[in-house]
What we know:
Elements: E1 8-12, H1 18-27, E2 32-35, H2 39-47, E3 51-52, H3 56-61, E4 65-70, H4 75-83, E5 99-102, H5 108-121, E6 138-141, E7 144-145, H6 147-153, E8 156-161, H7 164-174, E9 178-185, H8 189-217, H9 222-230, H10 237-240, H11 264-281, H12 286-301, H13 312-315
Parallel strand pairs: 1-2, 1-4, 2-3, 4-5, 5-6, 8-9
Antiparallel strand pairs: 7-8
Helix pairs in contact: 1-6, 8-11, 8-12, 11-12
The protein binds nicotinamide-adenine-dinucleotide.
Family: Belongs to the HIBADH-related family. 3-hydroxyisobutyrate dehydrogenase subfamily.
Pathway: Amino-acid degradation; L-valine degradation
Keywords: Branched-chain amino acid catabolism, NAD, Oxidoreductase
Amino acid sequence: MVLDMQGTIGFIGVGNMGAPMAANLLKSGLPVLVFDRNPAAVDKLVKLGARAASSPQEMGETPGVTAIMSMLPSTDHVADAYEGPQGLLKAAGGLQPSLLIDSSTILPTYTAELAARIATYSMLAPGARKVAGAPGPVFVDAPVSGGVIGAVAGTLTFMCGGSAAGVRAAKPLLQLMGKAVEHLGDPGAGQVAKICNNLAMAIQMAAVSEALALGAAMGLDPAALTQVFNSSSARCWSSQVYNPVPGVLPDVPSAHEYRGGFNAGFMSKDLRLALQLAGSAKQPLPMGERAAQLYQQVLDASGGEPVDFGAIYKFVYNGRPSNGGVKGN
Ligand code: NAD
């Protein structure tokens, strides 16, 4: 495939999401340069054919690197990777990459400030390849939906904020890792969309868990009740695709003691981001506030072990597993 930004792609943060995303870039035939604080995470990508950088700054100084992706846990980590002592923006002599894409889920106001600082103060290195229609480096926020399964399959949805030129240049690259690339508006707009999506998902998962737990407490098999939901008005992603009750669906985190999947810690972080946005917009979020408390309860009960957010069914609702079928037929 020929990209506008043909060249080496730098990838910062190759954890659960970043590793399969970077692997898909390698599979497409693109050279990839990776950096992660965790050397074991870097080694896995090097075994797949990537090269390793010693810092984001070095990535920013490496000739031939045209674009950088980052996939980091939270706002502070992104700030460190971009603006820390060895951050990307410390590149001596200007940046080699002109397209900077952050796919982490972080605070939109920081994203907008970072994009403005990059547009105002950052320079490209002499001879660096430019994004068409932009004289200097361009930042795009592109958080994702689809989880680890979507990252592995290359079917993520990217929610983008940034200039038209930036998103136009980012799109062919993002399409190597995802099936949909939506442009929502200015820098930070992608983050707002992602946070709203996860607010709805958090509440939806709590609602499905609550109703299935009540049915089970009243003697219904959650698998049978799920079937009813899925052909009735309660049908949703949490009932149909990602059911939180052990024994209802195979190959989802609830089938594996809530291991893998979307960490309840990330869900708590995303709800805190939603509450921060709501505070500044003076928008009431009564369900979001309650959901934040419930997912905190999941984290407290899981004793520091990483656990999928569907574990709300177990830890908040004391939900029973499915007994494997409809009784009385
Ligand atoms: P992860 O913890 O598995 O991976 C993050 C990686 O970043 C780790 O390898 C860590 O060592 C590295 N890292 C941390 N700070 C760093 C720094 N300053 N410089 C370089 N590397 C650093 O997290 P993840 O599951 O890949 O999630 C990443 C982001 O994607 C989060 O913002 C999360 O909210 C979002 N997200 C996750 C999922 C999911 O299902 N896991 C789904 C959608 C969105």
